[in-house]
Fold these 4 entries.
Entry 1:
Amino acid sequence: MATSKHRPQGLQDTTSTENPGYLRPETAQGMFLNFKRLLEFNQGKLPFGAAQIGNSFRNEISPRSGLIRVREFTMAEIEHFVDPMEKVHPKFSNVADLNITLYSSKAQTSGQSAHIMRLGDAVEQGVINNSVLGYFIGRIHLYLTKVGLSKDKLRFRQHMDNEMAHYACDCWDAETKTSYGWIEIVGCADRSCYDLTCHSKATKRSQSIPCFQSFSLTRSNKTVSVVQFEANKGAIGMAYKREARSILDYLAACDEGYITAQESTLDTSGEFTIQTEGKAFKITKDMVSVKRFQKTSHVEEIVPNVIEPSFGIGRIMYAIFEHSFQTREGNEERTFFSFPATVAPYKCSVLPLSQNQEFVPFVKELSEAMTKQGVSHKVDDSSGSIGRRYARTDEIGVAFGITVDFDTVNKTPHTATLRDRNSMTQIRAQVTELPGLVRDLANGRLTWAEVERKYPVFGGQETIKKE
Ligand code: GAP
């Protein structure tokens, strides 16, 4: 839920009332604070993105469901800043053909179920607000399925009007089905210009300060409608004395949407309230009016909008564990984790067939070569049967296993077997080739199907399968 409705102001350190400390509810704010610097890094051009990973804290929740709902968790967020007039992603075509399960707000209100839709069609038909948001939904889908979540247990649910943050123009949560039901694991929101505008107001820096609240773009001359508060300095000064300056600055920094909303409150109740400098101030009809006029501008000032994918790492990891937990057909007791090799903590095991000393140099050669190639692996030279040792590595999700056997020792060129955990099939390849093969399998450059096509399948495995 990427809304601010239940958002705490941060956990306050109550041990020191003189110097309270606050813990952030999301990683995002640091990137908004650093907007000016990030813009400079990008040569003052839009669009650009920043990403951050770190701890986030929520004091409003009651922790439960293990990793699912905690007060302190790891969050990873991207803030992708765009020109509000150009919410078109140049790489959207890369993801447009993905078929994704979407649960739109319309489907939710009308009692329909989620349905699979081509991403390109969803953006064209306006189900998803714009192609930048669509692009990130596509990339989130690709990421989640790549790290091991089942496609059929993944959907994107659109926020309903009553749960959408007031600043967001569209928001979709990636949800996954677990034993706890459907849980949100990634939020993807178009937060419009809310954060940078709030920042402008809080720091009282007007739009004329370049590269901060606003970003100048040279476009063709354009006549624009301007809506602004016209403050009665005398009345505000009389009422609020030394605090008048900050109120005037606040009113000068308000945007059209906010002004229009307050104008109607002013009409109906004769006043509205603003919050600045940690205090609330009543603004009455004699203190302010709303001015509307046309302005021809040569340089347009815009406040960048932000699209924010926000990943809850603990929840994603939890879902990977649940979706990857499998049992071998016909043998309920034999369980394994089918982690994709890219995320498996150990990519490969190295198993001598027995404790025969002749296997030792080959095990050493393979282990050293894999260390050089950066392949995380584990040598298991314990005395258990090879089948039992395979089962043990399967249980912790090791993706592949190399076995050094008598053919490795006795035949040249020296070869060993490579076993795929999920299918339990094996191929035979030269000892010198195997570390590179595992590296390519582990980083996704090679698939097991490709390996099976290239190398002879090793059939002496059958006895091991039965164990
Ligand atoms: N900046 C947007 C934001 O904070 P959020 O939906 O509140 O949005 C983003 O949080 C992600 O963080 C969620 O999709 C979820 O995966 C994770 N998350 C939120 N609250 C959590 C909690 N109490 N415990 C564990 N993970 C949580």
Entry 2:
Amino acid sequence: MSNILILGGTTEASALASALADRGERAVLSYAGRTGKPRAQPVPVRIGGFGGIAGLVDYLRRERVTHLVDATHPFAATMSGHAVAAAQEAGVAHIMLTRPPWVASEGDRWTHVPDIPAAVRAMEGEAKRVMLALGRMHVDSFAAQPQHHYLLRFVDAPAEGPALPRHGLIVDRGPFTPEGDMALMREHGIELIVSKNAGGGGAEAKLAAARMLGLPVLMIDRPPSPAARVTHEVREVLDWLHQAADRGV
Ligand code: 3Y8
Ligand code: NAP
């Protein structure tokens, strides 16, 4: 009998949880606890860190997890590194369920930067109206470029105001729509969008909106991903689970 731990926080993780619930598989979805009211799931949910690699190894052993599916966001690099190491140490089958990076298409005006600090450096220059669609965790880095007016979008209302002298704040969770993001960009006179290369469908609306409005995008490339088995398809995770089970792992 499989006992699956899904490291969640993405559209793909939720889709996998639904597929496993439909099949009556035993699974738990794990959130870090970054948001106040994470989306309800059709499988049991646990919330909070494990306590590093050692904490995750203890959890895997204590809960007799048989399969670990890392379906975290491509920028959740620490969690993904811990998952590979802990699965190895605990002898638990491991796979990453992620989504391919976005690739610029006809009409896109993207400038790629390797990481958040490079994005901050690229913001040198005269004041602009910028949609900083990075969520809450990295906003303070942009205080180094206070000349811009930033439009921020957080999942939850922050306890205190962001450390940016000129900003507007939207509290909303995705998935978003191109029409909604176009209206937002027009309403706020946005001249530049800053985005992580998250991939997937839940955050790409802003890219379609930028393309339709002919706006430039500063695209932050993903951190390196650990060496591991990777798939982009829920179907392939289900096949893997049965193969692994057949092999008795
Ligand atoms: C807590 C769980 C689902 C998953 C939905 C996806 C899509 C909507 C789009 C913009 C970009 C951003 C942000 C974003 C999206 C999905 C997905 C995705 C981007 C929730 C969720 C958790 C989080 C954490 C949150 C971060 C923040 C990032 C907002 C739930 C809603 C910007 C990433 O306030 C905070 O501390 C928020 C932190 C990490 C990045 C940041 O640096 O602020 N996601 N987002 C997860 C946990 O606790 O383990 O509350 O239900 C999940 C989703 N957010 O099941 O439907 O699949 O990516 N999330 C980015 O891509 O740049 C918004 O505004 O255009
Ligand atoms: P991170 O920097 O890679 O991880 C930092 C620490 O947070 C981890 O070491 C772990 O703590 C804890 N953690 C992370 N994900 C967890 C999970 N699913 N369950 C339990 N603990 C978790 O992670 P992050 O970038 O802060 O992302 C946190 C969550 O938000 C993840 O679920 C991710 O999928 C989701 N998310 C992130 C982004 C983003 O842009 N980063 C976007 C959308 C969704 P311990 O060391 O104590 O175990």
Entry 3:
Amino acid sequence: MKKILFFFLLLGSQLISRADEGMWMPLLISQNYDAMQRLGLKLTPEQIYDINKSSLKDAIVHFGAGCTGEIISDKALVLTNHHCGYDAITKLSSVSNNFLMNGFMAKTQAEELPCPGLTVKFLVRIEDVTDRVKNFIGNAYGKEVETKFEEIAKSITKEVNQENVFESDVKSFYAGNKYYLFVYQKFTDIRLVSAPPENLGKFGGDTDNWMWPRHTCDFSMFRVYSNNDNKPAAYSINNRPYSPKHHLPVSLKGVQENDYAMIMGYPGRTTRYLTSYGVDLATSVSNPTLVKIRDKRLSIMREEMEKDMAVDLQYASSYAGLANYWKYFIGQTEQLKNLRIYEKKQKEEDEFNDWVKANDKDLKKLMPDYQKAYAEYTPYAKHATFYREAFLASALARLGAGFENIDKAYNAGVSDDSLETLCKKLIPFRKSVLNNVFIPLDKKVFSALNLMYYQDVSKAQHPSIFNDIFEDYGSEDWKKTFDDFTEDLYESTALLDSEKFVNLCNAEYIGKLLKDPAIKYALNVVRNYKDNYEAKTNQFGYEMFELNRAYQGALLEKNKNKLMYPDANSTMRVSYGKVSAYTPKDAVSFKYYTLADGLLEKYKAGDKEFDLQPKIVDLLKKRDYGDYADKNLGGLVTCFITNNDITGGNSGSPVMNGNGELIGCAFDGNWEAMSGDVAFDTRFKRTICADARYIMWVVDKVLGGHHLLDEMTIRN
Ligand code: ARG
């Protein structure tokens, strides 16, 4: 009896200590309800997602282009990550008024700063539209699937869209096996309320990024404004804070190991059903290529940014974005290898093939077809990465590439009027491409990445302009060749001179304009790539769509008695799990939380990544934690980890306890599980969260924003 009990206890604890894989659809969350309750959820499924009554989903927003935020007051105060607000904060900053560096706190609503271009979307409802979409697509193949999907999606969304009220989207799930409609309410008057100084919001910089243990206070706060009818409206001084259907109470009770943790948000992209062939391409070609290109680009950016504070501000946001995924792909490659994901995938494919045989399915050729498609595409994969990451890295090349249509029109002999119309459209385009560009930096990137393109992309695939460059500038020293070419190009092009450019933009001179050296260079690279290689990338994409649809469709059938979650696709998902420590390697164990003491341990005065303002150092040295210290742990908890399943796009997501109260803000993943988007490893995969008490300590004690706490619903 005792033995049996022991056996069950063991089994039970294994189940419970399992990390919780799966990004579930809120619409179907009742399917997971038992498991969630067992872990400690106290809410009903309707309290999570309901389209009639207010529910948690009404407090979770899609923030900006690719993040999550949550509503934490009845005046629509939004909490998200600092790295999600980073671009907006940077744009509001100047050398003399540097909110990025110093932080920001609006003392009153009147001081909140409008952020043009920033949007916040609330989810209104989700509908299954699989039959309609599938019937319409029928047996279409390749490009036609894309066209037909766009057509039906357009007609479905047209039925629900209403200007300034609803905006909607049809999304594919399980690689085209299911389709859902998402209806949103989109707000455009969003204002900055508060941000920590960068050396807290990004404490540890790229060194600590994607790593645990962590001490970053990665948060910022915004507010959603509406018109007097509580509806979305363009910015106006007469707008008022939106009245949300639901806001999350903030718990200052703290977390303990094994506490229930639930995360809702907008995970962007995972490829959990990627085959071993895909893993091989990523580790051997795509990832190392991207990393090598970005390594160079980032080091050039750094060099120029360090010289001049204004340039630093100009490039801070794009630098952070590039560096984030530079390190991501280093980590992903390392862990795909370490955790033997290729072998793991092969095993899954063998199992799949056994199932195919046993059930006599017409899918015996599926895996060989994958293999064939990858083998055919592999020789061109590097070129695709170079085109996107290296050629298009410089603003001048992007600008030159923008002349593709007018060049085509010119060669087709269209009328002077149409040519002129096309050219006039390029005037604002030029302005936007060159906005915030520092030419000396752009020039260095241009030269260095062209050299790398020349050296790394197979010679047979080179654009002919490389020959011309060597004819005119050839030297033993290839770097010199490209530097000289670049120098002349930037000197002689009319594109960088607004007046010259506008003058050339009339019918009489367009022929001359198209001979501009920067346009000639860019269009030569564009044409070479598009005429010869882009079709291969597209064809590969269509084949992957067909194969993935078949594979995931079969997996749905194979797993019909189990729950199978769809890959992330920037739609709202629910992940549940618990607060959980881990063991990164033999003899090393990581706690589930970090303390503010660690901030002082890592602190390095004057360092780019580990500096802290004197005022903060002072508060920390005095251990002045206000009401936010953890009584049991004897300090201020800064960050904690859970075993939730999240990915990029979840940044800023609320971490909630069993009562749906906010306990933290999710902001990162950990190094040992960097292969997580391809395969979830239950031993290592963790979500890194800023503790709600750490955030409130910074708001209150560092930024003097106690008034913000007064508008929240605090649970002590
Ligand atoms: N790795 C984090 C994410 O993708 C972003 C962290 C931003 N911080 C930084 N040092 N770049 O969600």
Entry 4:
Amino acid sequence: MQMKTKILLIYTGGTIGMEKDYETQSLKPLDFDNLLGHIPELKLIDSEIKYTSFEKPIDSSDIGPEHWIRLARIIEQNYTDYDGFVILHGTDTMAYSASMLSFMLDGLKKPVIFTGSQLPVGDLRTDAKENLITSIHFASLWGDGRPLVREVCIYFEYRLLRANRTTKINAENFDAFASPNYPDLGESGIRLDLRKDLLWDCDDASEFSVNTLLDTRLGLMKIFPGMTRAYIEAQLNAPGIRVLIIEAFGSGNIFTYNWLNELLKRKAGEGLIFVINTQCAGGMVSIGQYETSGIFKEIRAVNGYDLTTEASVAKTIYLLGQGSTGEEFRKAYETNLRGEMTKA
Ligand code: ASP
């Protein structure tokens, strides 16, 4: 560890800082001072911790592009002054925000660790303290004169995960996140165990910069047997969308109705980009492996390989924001930009 690392703690809201409203009995976000008051242990940590907060903390269901931009700007403005960043965020959309930030922060060479909790910090059985304190410890790990973690992560329930590989899998268990297609980057036991061989190896020569141009003109369609033609047509004809991510069966398969093939060809001809993901929790898309994915080959759909839904949405918003279209979009999408995909 460096002499004394400087960590910026950013509070956006989420269960970690919530309290039950007396009248409605629903959980709602508290202000930051209240949250910090519950964790006096922060003063004992051997890092210099500074705090900042969204003016109005929110439930992460309300997170959107303007919040991602705000987070990216906070990191940009404080990048040289701090060794690492810990973001307190609701768990519901944490995997989306963390994936998004992984694309927005280009040439990142410091840790940005998202965490939160399943029980509010004021609850006797809360998971908030361990999650927060260990996130700060992981963000403070130092070696060879630099932070050891140099990417965006989620730390939750003793596991450090690559942000853009995560998905929320449980609304009740403390172990709320999975990283189905990439191993854990670290584990908290008696010691903090960091799998250095798995960390993202960023290019030392690249300058840190922040991309805040985001474009959300995309759709996401999960298919199921028996889907009506009217519903599919409505999704494919949604006005203004530039990209439609299809969560297909297995290795990227879809039902073979003639009308659907014709519709896919027509929309692709009009310039709509199709990205094919699998709706399986693990494994990857392999277009052409079965006859039932042949249409995707024909319309030159983009292969989403083993991207999570969250990373797939984030990557699309990021690439559309960069003005990427057509072949350029496909090439960039099928490239592993931040460790988010495994390519065969
Ligand atoms: N609804 C909460 C949120 O995402 C859930 C949580 O924080 O765990 O903000």
